[in-house]
Specification:
The protein is of the alpha/beta class. The protein folds into 3 domains: about 100 residues, OB fold (Dihydrolipoamide Acetyltransferase, E2P) (Beta Barrel), CATH 2.40.50.140; about 150 residues, Rossmann fold (3-Layer(aba) Sandwich), CATH 3.40.50.261; about 40 residues, no CATH class. About 40% of the residues lie in helices and about 20% in strands. It contains 11 helices and 14 strands. The strands form 3 sheets. Strands 1-2-3-5-4 form a 5-stranded mixed β-barrel. A hairpin with a 4-residue loop joins strand 2 and strand 3.
Length: about 400
């Protein structure tokens, strides 16, 4: 009977496993569980299970980076690798060198995952779509310089919209380096003061359109400072670039039409604007003429001549009013004077003298009583027509 340490036993089992040719290349079918990726090392650790059992698995960074999709827990896969023993813990595991989805192609799964990721980032949000300018001064085209799509777009733009400036930003549209080439061209066009950018290529097999499914292209379109029209392949073709772009055109030729305005239509719009401008101008002239007439009338009313006439009329009216008031005042004064004269005549001594009476003065004083005189006094008699003198011979008072 062998006496072994745990290390010796684990090493022995590891050697036995390594020596078994059946375990050097294994295809293991099952569901991924407990998937984790070490962000520092880049290695992936997970298990592959069925309804009854599970097997630990590891996929080192060098192999994991080549996967076109992102493994996730719950995903059904077929793993290719070799069985190894982790001697420290006495556990065996499958060292995976390749991983493919079970039931769906790796490229299709990668595309599905990429679309889901970009949707979460808001790349497909309708709210961020920008309107295409009606009359762009500068149109940028991102495509292959040797492709037929470029010639189709240039021909349409020259015919429909010759006043617009067209700049070509050549890019590879097929191959491994195509996504970065397209993304770089889009950023260059956006920084080159283009008003709108057309991207695309002619039709072909779905594999030839893969560059426009890339995340790098989608990000360049999303970050573009100006609107982007995507026209990839034929009308039935559909890719991520179409979904991120501000507008999708079914073909490159259609993209050129959407980015331009037909000259005949432009001329009609210019004529309509001219008519509108003329109408507005005439209305403004009429309004200013009316305002000028109002100011002229106002100025005429405020002119010195008019002011002199108005002041003269006011003075004449005041003079007439003053004359009337003075006439009324004179009449009233005459009436008051006549009344006073009447009252004064009533108390005038001369009036009394005219009735036969006389005023007696003694020593320049009016004699009011007989007792004030004595016999022999000389008095002065004031009559209505003169004065005479008399001597008192007798004096007799009135008995009381």
């Amino acid at each position: 009977m062998l006496r072994l340490t745990p290390s010796q036993l684990n090493r022995y089992i590891s050697m036995q496993v390594q020596g078994d040719t059946n375990l050097r290349l294994v295809l293991l079918q099952g569901e991924i569980s407990n998937f984790t990726r070490n962000f520092k090392s880049g290695h992936c650790y997970f298990s592959i299970r069925d309804a009854e059992s599970s097997v630990r698995a590891v996929m080192f960074r060098s192999n994991a980076e080549r996967l076109p999709f992102q493994p996730e827990s719950g995903m059904h896969v077929i793993a290719q690798g070799s069985v190894t023993v982790y001697e420290r813990d006495g556990l065996y595991q499958l060292q995976v060198v390749d991983l493919v989805p079970d039931g769906i192609g790796a490229q299709a799964l990668a595309l599905k995952q990429r679309r889901e990721k970009l949707a979460k980032l808001g790349y497909f949000s309708p709210e961020r779509k920008r309107p295409i300018p009606d009359m762009p001064k500068k149109i940028g085209i991102v495509t292959s310089r040797s492709g037929a799509a470029l010639q189709d777009m240039l021909q349409i733009l020259r015919r429909r919209y010759p006043i617009g400036k067209v700049c070509i930003y050549a890019a590879l549209v097929q191959g491994e380096t195509a996504p970065d080439s397209i993304a770089t061209a889009i950023r260059t066009a956006g920084a080159d003061a283009c008003d709108v950018i057309l991207i695309g290529r002619g039709g072909g097999a779905s594999e030839t359109l893969e560059a426009f499914q890339a995340e790098a292209v989608a990000t360049a379109i999303f970050e573009s400072p100006v609107p982007v029209i995507s026209a990839v392949g034929h009308e039935i073709d559909h890719c991520i670039a179409d979904e991120v772009a501000d507008l999708r055109a079914p073909t490159p030729s259609a993209a050129a039409e959407l980015a331009s305005v037909e000259m005949d239509l432009l001329y009609r719009r210019i004529h309509a604007l001219q008519q509108q401008m003329q109408t507005v101008l005439y209305a403004k002239i009429a309004a200013h003429r009316q305002a000028l007439d109002r100011l002229g009338n106002r100025l005429e009313r405020q002119s010195p001549q008019q002011r002199i006439i108005l002041t003269a009329n006011q003075c004449a009216a005041l003079q007439a009013k003053l004359h009337s008031l003075m006439q009324k005042r004179l009449t009233h004064t005459e009436q008051s004077l006549a009344l006073l004269l009447s009252r004064l005549g009533a108390v005038n001594p001369l009036t009394v003298l005219q009735r036969g009476y006389a005023i007696v003065y003694h020593e320049d004083a009016i004699v009011r009583s007989a007792d004030a005189l004595n016999a022999g006094d000389t008095v002065r008699l004031q009559l209505t027509d003169g004065v005479c003198h008399a001597v008192i011979t007798t004096q007799q008072g009135v008995s009381t």
